[in-house]
Write a structure and sequence with these properties.
heterodimer; A: about 400 residues; alpha/beta; FAD/NAD(P)-binding domain; 3 domains; five-stranded parallel beta sheet; 8 helices; about 25% helix; B: about 100 residues; mainly alpha; two-stranded antiparallel ribbon; 5 helices; 2 strands; globular; binds flavin-adenine dinucleotide; DsrC-like_C (chain B); DsrC/TusE (chain B); Sulfur relay protein, TusE/DsrC/DsvC family (chain B); cytoplasm (chain B)
C-alpha cells in the first residue's frame, strides 16, 4: 500500500481528500489527513459575525463530517516535515508518505508588529481573521456608542485582500442602521497607494468611500500600536488616533513550515505557479493559502486550484508531464453595504473588469458593479461552501480557468 | 501606454510603472528616479538590486520585510526614497507596484 498524506483539513485539504479518494484505488492508496482542530470554520463568515449578520453556529461545523469515508482523519498537531526522508512528525508519532499535499493555510501574526498584541488586544484593538477575534469584536460593537474607528491592514499578502474594505463598508451600514453613524468617525488605513490599486476598479469604485464618508489614509507602513495614547504610528511619521482599532495583522504560513525549512520569509512554500508542485521536492504539492503563488489567498482560488492539482497528481503518479494549467483564477464577492455587493473574476494576469457572469451577455451577476443580486450571491456562498466546495463538486457554469467571455477587456 | 525613457521605447502602466521588467535598464531607472526627484547613488542602486532579487524570488515586498532584510534599516529606506519608499523604489526598479486584487 502507498500513502498519500494531506496536511491541514481546512478548505483546501478537505477538497483534496474528496477529489482524490474517488480517483485513487482503495486497495493501492491509503489517504490520511491531519489537522490540529476538531472544528472547521467558515472563515468568510468572520466578516459577518461582528455585525450580528451570522451567528456562531453558522460559521463552524465538525470538520470530520466533510472528510469522505475511506480517508483516515488524524486530529493532531503537525510538528515537522522531513521532505528528504518522506516523513512527517506529528505530536506523538511519525508518518511516512509517498506523496504529500501541504494545505496548512496561513494565519495572523500580530506579534510581528510592536504593541499590536499588547494589553489592549481584544479590548480596543481587534482582529476579525480568527473566530475568537471576530466574536470578541461582535461583543465590543454591540456596546460601542461612537468615537474614532480605524479599519486597517498591515501588509500584503493577506487572505481575502478585500475583506478589510468590506469590513469598513459593513461598519458604515451597521452604524447607520443603529442610528449612530454621525457619532462614528470611520477611517480606512492601508499600506498601499490607495484603497483601490487597480486602474479599472479605481475608476469604477473610487467614489464609494467618499460617498459613505469614510476617510482614507494611504501608504501607511505601520511601525507600532501605541497602547498608551491609542494611536497607530507609521515609519514615515504618520499618526492616526483611534478609540477602536480593527486591524488585519501580517499573515504568515504556519510555524511548521519554518521548522521544516520549507518556507520563505513569511513561511509560504515556494510553489510552481501553474502546476502547484513544490519547487523543492517533486513528490510534495502545495495548495491554498500555504503557497507563495501570486494569486489571491481565497477559498474560491483553492477550489479552482484543487481541480488542476487533482489532475496533476494523477499525471505525476502515472509518470507523465504535469499540466501547466493553473492561472490564479479568483472569483470573489465584495460586500459594499446596504445589501449590495460586487463580484470580481480575475487571474494572475487579468485585472478585474466590468461585465456579466457566469453567462456572457446575460449574467445574472454583474462584474465590478454593485447589485443586490451579487449580495445574494455572497450569502449563497456559505451554502455552496459547506455543500459543494468542500465536497469537491464543480460549480455549474464556472470553469477552473478564467474565461474572458462576458468581460469588457480593451 | 508607450513612452521614451533614456532614448528607449518602453511600455508604462497608467501610474508610470514599467509593464515589462525585461525593458528595464539602469539608465531607465535613473530617468524614473529623476521624475520622483531622486538623484541615484551607489546606495540607492544596492537597494534597487535587492528589490529586484526579491521580486524574482517571488518574495512579497513590504516595509517590514526591509527591516528584516539586513540590507538597510527603515530609517535609511525613508531617507533614500522619501514619501512612499516602497511605491517609489519599486517604480525605479522596474517591478510591479505593490497592490491588492482590486
Ligand atoms: C475574514 C475572512 C474572510 C474571507 N472571505 C472569503 C471570501 O469571501 N471568499 C473566499 O473565497 N475566501 C475568503 N476567505 C479566505 C478563505 O477562507 C481561505 O483562503 C481558505 O480557507 C484557505 O484554505 P486553506 O485550506 O488553504 O487554509 P485553511 O482553511 O486556513 O486551513 C488550514 C488548516 O491547516 C491546519 N494546520 C495548520 N498548521 C497546522 C499544524 N501545525 N498542525 C495541524 N494542523 C495545522 C489548520 O488548523 C487549518 O484547519 C476569507 C478569509 C477570512 C479570514
Amino acid at each position: 500500500m502507498k500513502n498519500l498524506l494531506i496536511l491541514g483539513a481546512g478548505t483546501s485539504g478537505t477538497m483534496m481528500a474528496n477529489h482524490l479518494r474517488s480517483k485513487l484505488k482503495k486497495d493501492e492508496w491509503n489517504i490520511s489527513i491531519v489537522d490540529q482542530y476538531k472544528t472547521h470554520y467558515y472563515q468568510p463568515g468572520f466578516l459577518f459575525l461582528p455585525f450580528d449578520i451570522y451567528t456562531e453556529d453558522q460559521v463552524k461545523k465538525d470538520g470530520k463530517k466533510f472528510i469522505p469515508n475511506g480517508v483516515n482523519y488524524i486530529q493532531k498537531k503537525i510538528e515537522q516535515i522531513f521532505p528528504d526522508e518522506n516523513k512527517v512528525k506529528l505530536e506523538d508519532e511519525t508518518l511516512s508518505y509517498d506523496l504529500l499535499i501541504i494545505a496548512t493555510g496561513c494565519k495572523i501574526a500580530p506579534q510581528e508588529t510592536e504593541g499590536m498584541k499588547g494589553k489592549n488586544w481584544h479590548k480596543n484593538v481587534f482582529d476579525f481573521y480568527t473566530y475568537e477575534g471576530s466574536l470578541a469584536l461582535r461583543n465590543k460593537l454591540r456596546e460601542f456608542k461612537g468615537g474614532k474607528m480605524i479599519v486597517h491592514f498591515t501588509e500584503m499578502p493577506i487572505k481575502c485582500p478585500v475583506a478589510p474594505l468590506e469590513f469598513v463598508f459593513l461598519a458604515d451600514d451597521y452604524f447607520t442602521k443603529k442610528g449612530i453613524r454621525d457619532k462614528v468617525d470611520l477611517t480606512y488605513v492601508t499600506p498601499l497607494g490607495g484603497a483601490f490599486t487597480k486602474p479599472k476598479a479605481t475608476a469604477a469604485l473610487g467614489h464609494l468611500l467618499s460617498e459613505k464618508n469614510i476617510k482614507v489614509v494611504t501608504d501607511f507602513a505601520i511601525e507600532k500600536v501605541d497602547n498608551e495614547t491609542n494611536q497607530i504610528v507609521d515609519y514615515g511619521g504618520q499618526i492616526v488616533d483611534f478609540d477602536l482599532l480593527v486591524t488585519v495583522p501580517t499573515n504568515m504560513g504556519d510555524d511548521l513550515i519554518k521548522r521544516s525549512g520549507m518556507g520563505d520569509d513569511l513561511n509560504f512554500v515556494p510553489t510552481d505557479h501553474h502546476t502547484l508542485q513544490s519547487l523543492g521536492h517533486k513528490n510534495v504539492f502545495v495548495i491554498g493559502d500555504a503557497t507563495n503563488v501570486p494569486a489571491s489567498k481565497a477559498g474560491s482560488v483553492a477550489h479552482f486550484a484543487s481541480e488542476t492539482l487533482t489532475d496533476n497528481i494523477l499525471l505525476y503518479l502515472d509518470g507523465k508531464p504535469l499540466k501547466q494549467e493553473f492561472d490564479g483564477h479568483a472569483n470573489c464577492f465584495i460586500e459594499t453595504g446596504k445589501n449590495k455587493a460586487l463580484l470580481i473574476d480575475f487571474n494572475y494576469t487579468q485585472e478585474p473588469v466590468e461585465g456579466t457572469f457566469p453567462i456572457p451577455g446575460i449574467g445574472p451577476l454583474k462584474l465590478l458593479k454593485e447589485s443586490i443580486f451579487n449580495h445574494w450571491g455572497k450569502l449563497a456562498f456559505r451554502w455552496i461552501y459547506w455543500n459543494m466546495l468542500l465536497k469537491g463538486i464543480p460549480i455549474p457554469l464556472v470553469s477552473r480557468n478564467m474565461s474572458k467571455k462576458g468581460k469588457k477587456i480593451e | 501606454m508607450e513612452a521614451v525613457l533614456a532614448g528607449n521605447k518602453v511600455n508604462l502602466t497608467e501610474d508610470g510603472y514599467l509593464v515589462d521588467f525585461s525593458q528595464w535598464t539602469k539608465e531607465i531607472g535613473t530617468e524614473l528616479a529623476k521624475e520622483e526627484g531622486i538623484e541615484m547613488t551607489d546606495r540607492h542602486w544596492e537597494v534597487i538590486k535587492w528589490i529586484q532579487e526579491q521580486v524574482k524570488a517571488d518574495n512579497a515586498l513590504s516595509v517590514r520585510g526591509i527591516k528584516k532584510s539586513g540590507v538597510l534599516d527603515i530609517k535609511e529606506f525613508y531617507a533614500l526614497f522619501p514619501g512612499g519608499p516602497l511605491k517609489i523604489s519599486t517604480k525605479i526598479a522596474g517591478v510591479p507596484k505593490p497592490k491588492s486584487c482590486i
